[in-house]
Amino acid sequence: MFSGTAASFSRTLDLIIINKRYEQVVSAYQTNSYLLINGGFINMIPRMYNQNTCDCMKAFTCTEQNILIINNTIAVVPGWYMGCYIIDSLLQATLECYYNQACIDSIYAAYQFWAWGALSWDRLAPRPRPLNATRATRSRFPPNVTLRDILVELLVDDWHVKTNFEAYYKECQPTQCSYTERIRRNFISGVTMFIALLGGLITTLDILVPNTVRFLRGPALYFFKRVHAKICQRRARVSTVATITY
């Protein structure tokens, strides 16, 4: 049950991602390509990642490690990636940074005050605490597992299946329950069934034929003799009456 549900979700997710990739729509953040106006013409220039070795026009899954600039110093955020499409970067990311207080502080240091629309990070706001690393060790999803691996498992750490037919019958209250099972038999089972049917037929004939013969020789023969005698008597009477009349 769980494997089928997870596989169905994974196929749907892959279908959505592939559909968005081949549409080749320019991302709102221009992570896959950007538009360049040159001489009255608009050109779509693909982005390059991994030190200009991966072209988003040729490979949709280009990603590279994300970095932060803190006081003109480059800091690498573990588990954070950037690439052609945000969904690919997100699925390749891990939650390692959220288990490390220093990593969380570096994010706040890089974005001391960031605002976009209705969202904002205030440098005076209390810092969130990291996730419990001890509990992560007891999970089958350690901090270095990608979000895609977690998603394809439906974010379920442990799946317990409990079948309760009593509750099902109480809820549905069916009047009867039946099922059909189709079994394809092989040659050996066919021969075995034929022999079994043949043996049963022979046994039936062994019982039926002698008793039928005894019945025909006994009561049935006596009955037919009496009927034949009565028919002969009636014919004789009819013949006598006809002789007297002439």
Descriptive notes:
This protein has 246 residues and is of the alpha+beta class. The chain has helices spanning 2-23, 86-92, 101-110, 133-137, 147-152, 165-172, 187-217, 219-245, and strands at 33-38, 41-46, 48-49, 54-55, 63-70, 73-83, 114-116, 119-121. The chain has a domain at 2-152. It has eight helices and eight strands. It has a two-stranded antiparallel ribbon. Helix 7 packs across helix 8. The longest helix is centred in the last third of the chain and has 31 residues, at 187-217. It is elongated and about 140 Å long. Mean pLDDT is 78; it is low at 115-119.
Shape: elongated
Low-confidence stretches: 115-119
How far from one another are the termini? 101 Å
Number of helices: 8
Q: Give the SSE order as H and E letters.
A: HEEEEEEHHEEHHHHH
Helix content: 40-55%
Let me know the number of strands: 8
Please describe the biggest sheet, giving its number of strands, its sense, and whether it closes into a barrel: 2 strands, antiparallel
Oligomeric state of this protein: single chain
The strands making up the biggest β-sheet line up spatially as 1-2
Structural class by helix and strand composition: alpha+beta
Strand content: 15-25%
- The overall pLDDT, averaged over residues, is 78
User: What is the radius of gyration computed over CA atoms, rounded to a whole number of angstroms?
Assistant: 44 Å
